[in-house]
Design brief:
Helix content is 61%, strand content 4%. It is built from 15 helices and six strands. The strands form two sheets. Strands 1, 2, 3 and 4 form a four-stranded antiparallel beta sheet that branches. Helix 1 runs antiparallel to helix 7, helix 3 packs parallel to helix 6 and helix 10 runs antiparallel to helix 12. The termini are far apart. This is Ammonium transporter. Belongs to the ammonia transporter channel (TC 1.A.11.2) family. Keywords: Ammonia transport, Membrane, Transmembrane, Transmembrane helix, Transport. It is found in: Cell membrane; Membrane.
C-alpha cells in the first residue's frame, strides 16, 4: 500500500541521536547470538546446536516479518495518523514493506525525511532498533522448551507469535494503545486524564512488559503444552559448557546497554542515568542470587552468577529511567534473590521450563514492572507519592499476562497437528543429530 504520509512526520536529521540509535540497535542485535551462547551452554552437549539454532531461527523469521508488517502493526498509526484497531494494533498493510519510511521532500532547500517524533531520528532507524527487540523476545521463549521441539514447528511458531502476540503488545504499550498513557487507555480510565494523557502513565521504558513478562508467560504456556522432557525429575540436566554460559551473560550485559540506554533515543543525561542504573541493578542482582545460593546450598556457582546477571537486567529494563541508582540497587538485589528462589517452582508444580525462562524472565520481569510503583523517584510509593503508580503497573502487568497466555495457548494448540515433539529416539540420542544432522563436538 502506497501511503502518503502527513507533512508533520517529516523533519531534519539529528546526526548525534541517529548515530546513538544505530549503535544501540547493533548492540541489541548482538544480544540474540549472545542468548544462543547462554542457552546453548546450559543444555546438554547433544542439544547445544539445536538450542542455538532456535535463537538464530527466530532472528531470521522475525527480522523479515518485522520489516514486512511488524513495524506497521506496532507503530504505523503514529506516522500515518490513522486510527488503530481497538487500541490493540495498527493496520499491518498500511506501511507494509516499510518502503514508505524512505519518503523525503525538499523544504527551503533542505531535504527532510520521515523522522520519529521529536528526536530527529529517521523512522527507518527507529524501525531497525525496534526490530531487534522483537527478535530477542521470541528467542527468549525457546529456553522453556529446550531439547525436545521440532525446529520447523519452532520457526512457524516464531512468526505466528510475533504477529499475533508481540506486535500487538508492543503497540498497546509503546504505540499509543490501551496499555500506554493514551487518553483512551486503561491508566486514563483508572485515574483520569490531564492534558490529553493519563494522569498516571504506565512505565515500561525498555520492555519489562513487552519483552520479559511476555516471553516468560509464553514460555510457561508452551512448556505446559509441549510437555516434559523424557526423564524430567529423574535425570540431572547439567550444563555442558559453563564458559559458554558466562560468555553469553557477558555479551548480554554488554548488549543490554543498547537495549536500555538506547531506548532514550538520544545520548543525554537520562541515557547516562539509565547506563548507571542498569549496571548497579545487574551487579546487585548477581549478589542477590549468590546470597541465596550461599544460604541454601553452601556455595556460589558460576551459573548462578550468570543467571543473576540476567535476572537483574530483566528487572531494571522497565524501570531504568524512573529510579535513582540507590533504588536500582534495591530493585536488583530483590530481583536476583526472587529469581534464584523462583527457579525451583518448576519442580514444585511439575512443569518443565528447561532453562528457567519463567523463573528469571517472568518473575524478575513482574518484579521490575511492579517495583516501579514502589521505587520510582517521582511517582513511587516509597517516595511518598501514593498507590496510583503501583496500581497502574499491576493492572498493566496482569492484562499483559492474560493477553499473552490466551493467545500463546491458541497458537500452541493450533500447531499440534504440525507436531511439537521430536520422537523419543531423537530426544534420547540427541536432537542435534535428528534435527540438523550435525554434532557440536566430534569425538572420533
Amino acid at each position: 500500500m502506497n501511503v502518503a504520509l502527513p507533512d508533520t512526520v517529516f523533519g531534519t536529521i539529528d546526526s548525534g541521536n541517529t548515530a546513538w540509535v544505530i549503535a544501540s540497535a547493533g548492540l541489541v542485535l548482538l544480544m540474540t547470538p549472545a542468548l544462543a551462547f547462554f542457552y546453548g551452554g546450559l543444555t546438554r552437549a547433544k542439544s547445544v546446536l539445536n538450542m542455538m539454532m532456535m535463537s538464530f531461527g527466530a532472528l531470521g523469521v522475525v527480522t523479515v516479518i518485522y520489516v514486512l508488517w511488524g513495524f506497521s502493526m506496532s507503530f504505523g498509526n503514529s506516522l500515518t495518523g490513522s486510527k488503530d484497531i481497538l487500541g490493540i494494533f495498527s493496520n499491518p498493510f498500511e506501511l507494509f514493506g516499510s518502503d514508505q519510511l524512505m519518503q523525503s521532500k525538499e523544504v527551503g532547500g533542505t531535504t527532510q525525511v520521515v523522522v520519529w517524533g521529536d528526536y530527529g531520528i529517521p523512522a527507518i532507524v527507529f524501525l531497525a532498533f525496534q526490530l531487534t527487540f522483537a527478535v530477542i523476545t521470541v528467542a527468549l521463549i525457546s529456553g522453556a522448551i529446550a531439547e525436545r521441539v521440532k525446529f520447523i514447528t519452532w520457526l512457524v511458531f516464531s512468526g505466528l507469535f510475533a504477529t499475533i502476540v508481540y506486535f500487538p503488545l508492543a503497540h498497546m504499550v509503546w504505540g499509543g494503545g490501551i496499555l500506554s498513557g493514551a487518553e483512551d487507555g486503561i491508566a486514563a480510565k483508572m485515574f483520569g486524564v490531564t492534558d490529553g494523557a493519563a494522569t498516571v502513565a504506565p512505565i515500561d521504558f525498555a520492555g519489562g512488559t513487552v519483552v520479559h513478562i511476555n516471553a516468560g508467560m509464553a514460555g510457561l504456556v508452551l512448556a505446559l503444552i509441549v510437555g516434559k522432557r523424557k526423564g524430567f525429575g529423574k535425570t540431572a540436566y547439567r550444563p555442558h559448557n559453563i564458559p559458554f554460559v558466562m560468555l553469553g551473560a557477558a555479551l548480554l550485559w554488554f548488549g543490554w546497554f543498547g537495549f536500555n540506554a538506547g531506548s532514550e533515543l538520544g545520548a543525554d543525561a537520562t541515557a547516562g542515568l539509565v547506563w548507571v542504573n542498569t549496571t548497579v541493578a545487574t551487579a546487585a542482582a548477581m549478589i542477590g542470587w549468590l546470597l541465596v545460593e550461599w544460604f541454601r546450598d553452601g556455595h556460589a556457582t558460576s551459573v548462578g552468577a550468570a543467571s543473576g546477571i540476567v535476572a537483574g537486567l530483566v528487572a531494571i529494563t522497565p524501570a531504568c529511567a524512573a529510579l535513582t541508582p540507590v533504588g536500582s540497587i534495591a530493585l536488583g538485589l530483590v530481583a536476583g534473590a526472587l529469581a534464584a528462589v523462583a527457579i525451583g517452582l518448576k519442580y514444585k508444580f511439575g512443569f518443565d521450563d528447561s532453562l528457567d525462562v519463567v523463573g528469571v524472565h517472568l518473575v524478575a520481569g513482574l518484579w521490575g514492572t511492579i517495583g516501579i510503583g514502589l521505587l520510582a523517584k517521582d511517582t513511587g510509593l516509597f517516595y511518598g507519592n501514593g498507590f496510583k503508580q503501583i496500581a497502574v503497573q499491576t493492572v498493566v502487568a496482569l492484562v499483559a499476562l492474560l493477553f499473552t497466555a490466551v493467545l500463546t495457548a491458541v497458537i500452541g494448540y493450533a500447531l499440534k497437528p504440525l507436531g511439537w515433539r521430536v520422537d523419543d529416539e531423537a530426544e534420547f540420542v540427541g536432537i542435534d543429530s535428528a534435527e540438523h544432522a550435525e554434532s557440536a563436538y566430534e569425538t572420533t
